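Per your request, structure below.
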């Protein structure tokens, strides 16, 4: 899988390197997050044998909180997709998630500009910027 670099010169969507990588790996994990979100309804609570410590166990709340957290991540990524023009959207998403090469019909800088924009808006939707 190719290493994805952040375009720095002339890019209004520059993020700190650690935040950029954190959001990028979240995007790469989209399929697993979606699967966990769908399976969360049918899984048994992790704390099957009662609480540990002095607090009371609430497995329904735990599952709901986890599902909400996963849904927020998915919603942030889906909402950021709308910031990318339609003709570039699929290719930017495929490159960010799966490392598929960009097509040759647009300049390399154009692709990286839209990819940076997508990653920036995901971070913004997650309230990390």
């Amino acid at each position: 899988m190719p290493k994805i670099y952040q375009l720095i010169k002339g890019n209004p969507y520059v993020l700190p390197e650690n935040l950029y990588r954190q959001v990028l790996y979240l995007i790469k994990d989209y399929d697993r997050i979606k699967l966990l979100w769908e399976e969360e309804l049918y899984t048994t609570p992790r704390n099957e044998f009662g609480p540990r410590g002095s607090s009371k166990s609430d497995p329904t709340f735990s599952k709901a909180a986890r599902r909400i957290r996963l849904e927020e991540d998915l919603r942030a990524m889906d909402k950021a997709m709308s910031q990318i023009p339609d003709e570039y959207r699929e290719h930017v998403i495929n490159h960010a998630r799966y490392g598929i090469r960009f097509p040759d019909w647009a300049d390399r800088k154009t692709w990286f500009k839209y990819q940076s924009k997508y990653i920036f808006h995901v971070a913004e939707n997650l309230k990390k910027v």
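The chain has a mean pLDDT of 86.

Regards,
D.
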